[in-house]
Amino acid sequence: MSTARTGARPHSRLASTLNAPETPDRPPVPVDGVRRHGADGRVLLSVVADGVVVGFVAYDHGVSRLVMECIATAESRRGARIGSSLVHEMQRRHPGLAISAQTDDDAIGFYRELGFTDGAAPRDPRWPVQQRYECLLPAALTWTNPHP
Description:
Elements: E1 2-4, H1 14-19, E2 33-37, E3 42-49, E4 52-61, E5 65-73, H2 82-93, E6 98-104, H3 108-113, E7 117-121, E8 132-137
Parallel strand pairs: 5-6
Antiparallel strand pairs: 1-5, 2-3, 3-4, 4-5, 6-8, 7-8
């Protein structure tokens, strides 16, 4: 799986949706739902195709915002809007909460395309030469499908 740092039940439309060419009018990828909800408040949402997880997001549910810890998609599914569908599902489930994440140059375009604002973040000791960014997606009071 490619990562933007920071009992599964397949959907009937999922395989054809993931394999279809990307167009602005194609609906977002269906999200499988909560796979695990730990005692620490971390939530894991996933997208499953043919019984295999092809994308997921892990986030913490805070009082005023969601903190995205990790988002990843299978290399073979890049460009199929799995990542954006996961972020939109977070917004749908938690209207009124902002979403924050940290990333680097490899993934900043993904966050900017979704409307996140960004600024410089302290360097991460795990990647000391990488520029890091603090990203914030303002709270959505209502979720609307960006691809009706």
